[in-house]
């Protein structure tokens, strides 16, 4: 069982632009190998966790309140938020707040040996790292720079260091880097 941060980033380390848009990422359309890679990854995931900004982005951009069948996960999702947020009908969503350590323990119990995916955002992932609960960072790097926006991981990580364990090229657009937390 591993806890992964699996995400896409710009070359200069942003998840979304200053308007919380991912248009910079979606401009590339379908890239050879990316969907297969995602399916292999998600098949090993037993739960997801995300912050409220990521959840609200999904609600809005996937019109999930109007079309709840579009909810992308058939596994439990823990949403970290201090605000009351709407629930997608039929989705296994658990709203939590506070320290990530006891929530992670609850997630580990629920996944029965499968992996946990920290969907985002960067600050939430940083909290998992701060508690020693992050095992791998898997980044798909897009050939764009944004200059500002939502940072990939707004933390200084120098120790324990990151060990590069895999590199994959997807078309002539993305490179996927997998780092193990040492």
From TrEMBL:
Pfam families: RibD_C
Biological processes per GO annotation: riboflavin biosynthetic process
Sequence ranges assigned to domain Bacterial bifunctional deaminase-reductase C-terminal in this UniProt record: 77-172
GO molecular function, one term: 5-amino-6-(5-phosphoribosylamino)uracil reductase activity
SUPFAM superfamilies reported in the protein's UniProt record: Dihydrofolate reductase-like (SSF53597)
Coiled-coil residues: none
InterPro entries xrefs: DHFR-like_dom_sf, RibDG_C, Riboflavin_Biosynth_HTPR
Name recorded for this polypeptide: Dihydrofolate reductase
Annotated source species: Halopiger aswanensis
């Amino acid at each position: 069982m591993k806890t992964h941060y699996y995400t896409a980033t710009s070359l200069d380390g942003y998840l979304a632009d200053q308007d919380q848009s991912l248009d910079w990422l979606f401009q590339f359309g379908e890239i050879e190998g990316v969907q297969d890679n995602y399916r292999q990854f998600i098949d090993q995931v037993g739960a997801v966790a995300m912050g409220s900004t990521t959840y609200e982005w999904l609600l809005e951009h996937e019109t999930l309140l109007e079309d709840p069948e579009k909810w992308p996960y058939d596994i439990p999702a823990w949403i970290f938020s201090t605000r009351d947020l709407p629930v997608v009908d039929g989705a296994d969503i658990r709203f939590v707040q506070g320290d990530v350590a006891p929530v992670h323990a609850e997630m580990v119990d629920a996944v029965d040996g499968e992996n946990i995916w920290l969907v985002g955002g960067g600050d939430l992932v940083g909290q998992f790292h701060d508690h020693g609960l992050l095992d791998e960072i898997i980044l798909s790097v897009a050939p764009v720079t944004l200059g500002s926006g939502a940072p990939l991981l707004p933390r200084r990580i120098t120790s324990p260091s990151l060990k590069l364990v895999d590199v994959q090229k997807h078309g002539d657009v993305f490179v996927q880097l997998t780092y193990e937390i040492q």
